[in-house]
Amino acid sequence: TRTLEITPLNEVILKEIAMFVESFIYKHPQEAKYVFVEPLEWKTNLDPSAFESGYIVSETTVKSEEVDKDGQPLLFLSVPHIKIRSLGQLSRLLLIAKDRKSCNKNPGLDYNTVKEDTSTVNILDKITKDEDPESEIKMKVGMLLKQLDLYLLNHSLKRISLQICLNPTTVKNHIELLKHFSGKGEQTVLESIDYTSDYEFSNGCRAPPWRQIHGEICYVLVKPHDVETLCVTCSTEGVFLNEDEGEINYERKSEIYKDLVTFFKRKIGKIFRKYDIRFTEEWKKENEEPKEVPKKEEADALPKAFLASSKNILEKNQINFGKIQMTKRLEPTLNWKATVDFKKNTQEKKHGGRLGRSGPPVSPGRAQLVRKSAEKIEEILSDSSSENEEDEEPPDRRQEANADLPSEYWQIQKLVKYLKGGNQTATVIALRSMKDFNLAQETCQLAIRDVGGLEVLINLLDTDEVKCKIGSLKILKEISHNPQIRRNIVDLGGLPVMVNILDSPHKSLKCLAAETIANVAKFRRARRAVRHHGGITKLVALLDCAQSSAKPAQSSLYDARDVEVARCGALALWSCSKSNANKEAIRQAGGIPLLAHLLKTSHENMLIPVVGTLQECASEENYRAAIKAERIIENLVKNLNSENEQLQEQCAMAIYQCAEDKETRDLVRLHGGLKPLASLLNNTDNKERLAAVTGAIWKCSISKENATKFREYEAIETLVGLLTDQPEEVLVNVVGALGECCQEYENRVLVRKCGGLQPLVNLLVGINQTLLVNVTKAVGACAVEPESMMIIDRLDGVRLLWSLLKNPHPDVKASAAWALCPCIQNAKDAGEMVRCFVGGLEFIVNLLKSDNKEVLASVCAAITNIAKDQENLAAITDLGVVPLLSKLANTNNDKLRRHLAEAISRCCMWGRNRVAFGEYKAVAPLVRYLKSNDANVHRATAQALYQLSEDADNCITIHENGAVKTTASLKREFLGYSKF
Amino acid sequence: MSKPNPFLSLEFSILLPPTHFFLDPTPLSHTDFSFFTFKKSEVECLIRLFHSLVERANVRLNNFGLDRNAFRAILHSVFGMTDDMLMNRVFFAFDKDNDNCINAKEWVKGLSVFLRGTFEEKLKFCFEVYYLNGDGYISQEEIFDMLKNSLHQQSSEEETDEGIRELVDITLKKMDYDNDGKISFADFEKAVKEDKLLLEVFGPCLPEAKVECQQLKLVKGTF
């Protein structure tokens, strides 16, 4: 007999049985004496001392005084085994146990009673067959048991019908709802909640099929606010905890709860805060009207409008639609708009983060920003959720059973049959034969999966047969190029097995396993699985192989194999390093010095994955520091000169990532890396490499010395040539590089002479935000030159810049406003030009209501320039610039302070604006700016205060607030500027 | 058959490859055995072992070698082989002079391939194990014989037979480069060089990798 699980239902049944048995001796004293043919046996932890009268008690045994015909005791306890041969004794035992509450509480005892139930029924059979004088009593016992049975059945039926059965849709809704209320901060109920598996089967379940038969629907990782992440199973029976340390372990570790929220309330009650009343309400609503479908038109119209306003946000998936519907349904009040906005923001940020990774982003400051926001999202969504690059689920295409199947299908099916039913020899032959199929072809890949070959192949990895493992891995390695197969391999639990193989002493096995992991770990869940099973440490250990044997020149064969192992390890790490948590794991496993060492080798196919890994990891600050410390830049530069395009690309990518840092940029120059970069620009066929190279040039040219060098290498001309007919990833970098280079006078002239202004201005009409940020910067840099400015003006560039102020993305807005400053400064008839834009002044003044500091600072700077023209100053004064500027005065941001002070001092020049600033209380905060550490702020503030002090009231305010407190040196500064 | 004898394993482990593999084997001075890849001390040890095995197996028979049963027992207990038919074939491959008995020379020579053999030697050895009738080819019937037990009994004997026949076809298609319906040494060599998995294509006849590994550990522990 198997032990039954403790479920609420079973417990109730147990109680009923216990009650029945307990009362049996009183209700049916006659029948209670009836002796069973076979005793009931089980283990108990009842202490012999618990038995009193009627029993013969020794230290470890207890016999009942009541005996059967043959003198055998009806109850015999020999700790911990107990045998009972009559219902009366059983009844008595339970009563005894009840007195000793501790024992009764013990489910162990109760359990076994359940087992008895089944065995009693067995006894029934025997009873009926016997023709005994006692048969009458037997019959009665039988009848009573049958009655009990019937009663129990009815009872449990009632219970079952009461139980709420969860189904995939409700679970999904619940999770979505919880997701909605998750995030950082006090206002949320949870920090995060996420499925362990991205793959959703057609029935809505996410659990692997063999778990679905147990009724399990999906597994959820939940991060409550102040406890460790919990792994929770949602099954049709309810919700329960299933893990210990971050691993899915299908064993049940907690009681079953009705639904997720009940689970949370019980399990992490304190943390799952009650204060969020709103949530509770939504929850109720959700449960009361689970069938309510949102009105279709509304739901559709909403995302459409949304889509129109920011085109590239929503293209991605329907989930978003679902979310919006959700939001709509849950918050029919005014709130929903805010939520959508928030969502939009995160989406945009995500989008930015994605670009930042794949195609290099924006200006240096901006790039950091992107990275930061990506990190922030990552924090919010836990682990590596921001890496959604290649994570879109491919549609699961199964070959139709009735469709015309290719002949390979049947042949493969036959081979799989031999795999299943053959011994080692047959298996090897079948594997070998399977390898002869064109495994790169999707038909074959899917055929293997559809006939159940994947399971067999993965099972083979668990055997001891090296040859079978090798054969199986060789096939898995090939077919795992298919994204669907990858997912299936992960779903079937292939990764842990492969990770274990990494420990094998067989080098070829290790290689194959690592290569397969490299193929499989192309998506987030797989990468996480590799990490969770300790794969990163093992992969890093593979890198060590080459190091130990590389020293003396041993047998070349041996050496080559070690190098191969290291290569495969690096390949797998490259795939894994796309997850941020894995990057950290690689670092902790001591991967960086090993990678640095491998970088010194000359094997090209080794260098590519090594540099690739470094390049991926260089997005992390501490990697960049380590790369600098390990003197990796030198080798990167060296490999730029290699013949291999992929290697060049990875090296350029790595330089791109690392060159955020000034010292690194200098190192690149010192090691002679700029020249190869410049010469690589001439080959434009390989767009990926071109993007990487231009990215590296961009980042390097942030240093002035480098920009000069690039001019010497004639890179500027080439860059200008690349401004047309290139994909966006390349354009972003090219424009970025030009923007940096144009900070130098010679380069600006060069760009103009090469005819770079026209294509640059043309790019101002794009939609790619990263590109726009860079283009505006480059145009702004060029506009510093009056001669260039003329051309820009003629090309209508200023108007285009101005219209970019309307771009929804704050970075674009700010960048456009910055670019406008030199334009207005250097335009011939700037005042007239500005006035020409209908509604332009009003718009820019209204931008002062923005809440983005960078936008504010840039708009202040633009206003400073606009206000140089008296007529315009009058216009913006009428538009209410004074109160808006005054409102901004209370800020700690030095950049904003500086430009705000400049704007204020400019605006003082009109009418009674000076007085107005005083009235709007802008003066007192300005005085406090003098405590800032930034000299630019001091200068601008001094100027502004000088302007303001021409009004007597303001003078008083200045003295009241600052003059006494400000130090002597600041006063000197103040006076000095006042004079000037 | 007897259980694996730990003493025996230990003796063998001294001779096992990986750690010594790439140290230059010093040329042997012993005239008779100079062509082996073993060191002199190892050969001596092997011969000692041989005599002790012979003594244990053939007390009654006044024999100077190991007969088939004794040899099979060793294959089973030390090298983890299980297939009777293949063990017979290994025996015949060891028994160069076809006297149904393995003498000391054959023993050392065979083991040198078994444990230290180069890839080419192993290739040749496997081929010898697989072709029986001495014509230098592995015929279709022989393959069938060797694969006879490779599929678990399916629903009917016919079906199993068909499956095996198919496996034979597959291997022939794979390995019979000259399309003469049988596998010559050249065929075999070519196929195995293309994919080493095919070395023991018709059944295990070399010491298992697992055994090697275990004994490698043992060696590492001992030295």
UniProtKB/TrEMBL annotation, chain A:
InterPro entries: ARM-like, ARM-type_fold, Armadillo. Pfam families: Arm. This is Armadillo repeat containing 4. Gene3D superfamilies: Leucine-rich Repeat Variant. Residues 626-657 form a coiled coil. Residues 343-367, 379-404 are annotated as: Disordered. Keywords: Coiled coil. The keyword tRNA processing does not apply. The keyword Coiled coil applies. ARM repeats lie at residues 493-535, 839-881, 921-963.
UniProtKB/TrEMBL annotation, chain B:
Residues 82-117, 118-153, 163-198 form the EF-hand domain. Pfam families: EF-hand_7. Keywords: Calcium, Metal-binding, Repeat. It comes from Canis lupus familiaris (Dog). SUPFAM superfamilies: EF-hand (SSF47473). This is EF-hand domain-containing protein. Gene3D superfamilies: EF-hand. One of its GO terms (molecular function) is calcium ion binding. InterPro entries: EF-hand-dom_pair, EF_Hand_1_Ca_BS, EF_hand_dom, Recoverin. The keyword Hydrolase does not apply.
